[in-house]
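Saturday, quiet lab. Running sequence design on the structure tokens for the scaffold JK sent over.
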């Protein structure tokens, strides 16, 4: 069975798990990612600062991203000023 790893990014922090999880396929991997993220999102939202971004990725055995879930907190109430989180978001190439 394929081995997958979780990685979390929050501001300058980025860390991947060293212990992989065996899952049957990408469908099972997606289910594991969404379930794990759902369990964490309440606590993350309570601590998320304005104009920040939090990401959780599932990596394959080569430590390449397979799936990513992003939570973005943008300030929209300041007319004329742009959100810093929106400006800082990294554009990542789409996987084909």
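Result came back. Writing it out in full:
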């Amino acid at each position: 069975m394929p081995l997958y790893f979780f990685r979390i990014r929050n501001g300058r922090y980025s860390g991947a798990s060293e212990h992989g999880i065996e899952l049957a396929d990408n469908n099972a991997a997606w289910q594991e990612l969404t379930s794990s993220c759902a369990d964490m999102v309440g606590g993350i939202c309570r601590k998320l600062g304005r104009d920040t971004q939090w990401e959780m990725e599932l990596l394959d055995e080569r430590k390449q991203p397979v799936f990513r879930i992003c939570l973005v907190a943008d300030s929209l109430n300041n007319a004329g000023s742009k959100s810093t989180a929106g400006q800082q978001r990294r554009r990542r190439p789409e996987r084909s």
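Notes for JK: The first strand starts at residue 3 and ends at 10. DSSP finds two helices and five strands in the chain. Ask whether to fix the surface positions before the next round.
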